[in-house]
Amino acid sequence: MEGYRTLRAELERAVLPLAGSLDGRTFTLQAPLGGLEIALGGYVMLEGDGPPVLGQVRWLERVVVEAGTVGLGADDGQDDLRARLALRVAQGAGTVLDGAPGPFHDRLARPATPAEVSAATGRSGGTSTRIEVGTLALAPGVPAVLDPAGFDRHTFLCGQSGSGKSYALGLMLEQLVLHTGLRVVVLDPNSDFACFAQARADAPPEAAARWHAVAGGIAVRSMDGGDAERLRLRLDELTPELQGALLRLDPVVDREEYAELRALIATERPESVGELAATARPEGRALALRVANLRTAELDVWARGRAGTIADALEDESIRCLAVDLGSLATREEQRLVAAAVLERLWDRRKRRSPVLLVIDEAHNVCPAEPEDPLTALATATAVRIAGEGRKFGLHLLVATQRPVKVHENVSSQCDNLVLMRMNSRTDTATVRTLLGFAPPALVDLATDFGLGEALVAGKIATHPALIRFGSRISCEGGGGVAAHRAEDDGGRP
Question: What's the pTM?
Answer without folding.
Answer: 0.88
